[in-house]
Design a protein that fits this description.
There is one protein chain. This protein is mainly alpha-helical and about 200 residues long. The protein contains nine helices and no strands. The protein has helices at about 15-40, 45-50, 55-60, 65-75, 90-105, 105-120, 125-145, 155-170, 175-205. Helix 1 (about 15-40) crosses helix 2 (about 45-50) and helix 4 (about 65-75) runs parallel beside helix 7.
């Protein structure tokens, strides 16, 4: 007999009934989050609205941070996700626009702000934030593979940072023109970094 507490056992997502329950809870969480905020999104309220037990919610998401992370990663499709390509400018521009569109969803926006705000003092939120960044960087690098480009942590931050700052701190619109400026400056940084790397390699040969 398993000694794992019920609320720590992961549900069998291959089960269609479990999938439907999870999808219903996620949909209700997405509706509630902009209304009540992250602190108001209690598992008791979520269970009541979804007509499930709190144990069921805990089995899917052992922590609130895990739920918020899934709300971000499984956000609504608010535009075409870019295809892999050999033109770095085209791919980076399309990826940034996809990031902008996804973050414009109220529930996704609220979840991102909550996970970021709690990361300093909550280990679950810190892990969720780290996984979110790793997931998004890995996805971008897959898109850039045909171009032979691999973005490191710093280069990734320099690409998405201005857009998130504009959206979440300045509370301003991210226009296509703004995205184009960010990508142009980012490509210039990549070019300089590449030139410096080639110069260093040549000096060492």
């Amino acid at each position: 007999m398993s000694s794992t507490p019920v609320h720590r056992r992961r549900p069998a997502l291959s089960n269609p009934r479990v999938q439907r329950t999870r999808a219903r809870i996620m949909a209700i969480a997405r509706e509630l989050l902009p209304e009540v905020g992250p602190t108001g999104l209690s598992y008791a309220l979520l269970a009541e609205r979804a007509e499930v037990t709190r144990q069921t919610v805990y089995r899917h998401w052992p922590s609130r941070a895990a739920l918020l992370l899934d709300l971000i990663l499984e956000g609504p499709d608010l535009g075409d996700y870019p295809e892999p390509g050999s033109d770095v400018r085209v791919v980076a521009t399309a990826w940034l626009k996809s990031l902008r569109n996804g973050t414009s969803d109220p529930a996704t926006r609220s979840a991102v702000l909550a996970v970021t705000a709690h990361a300093d003092h909550d280990s679950d939120s810190a892990q969720a934030l780290a996984r979110l960044i790793q997931d998004r960087r890995a996805a971008l690098n897959v898109l850039l593979e045909p171009a032979g480009v691999h973005v490191d942590d710093d280069e990734f931050t320099l690409l998405y940072g201005p857009v998130l700052a504009r959206l979440l701190i300045d509370r301003e619109q991210v226009t296509d023109a703004f995205v184009n400026v960010v990508v142009t400056q980012w490509l210039a940084l990549l070019d300089r970094a590449g030139a410096a790397s080639r110069s260093h390699a040549a000096a060492g040969s």
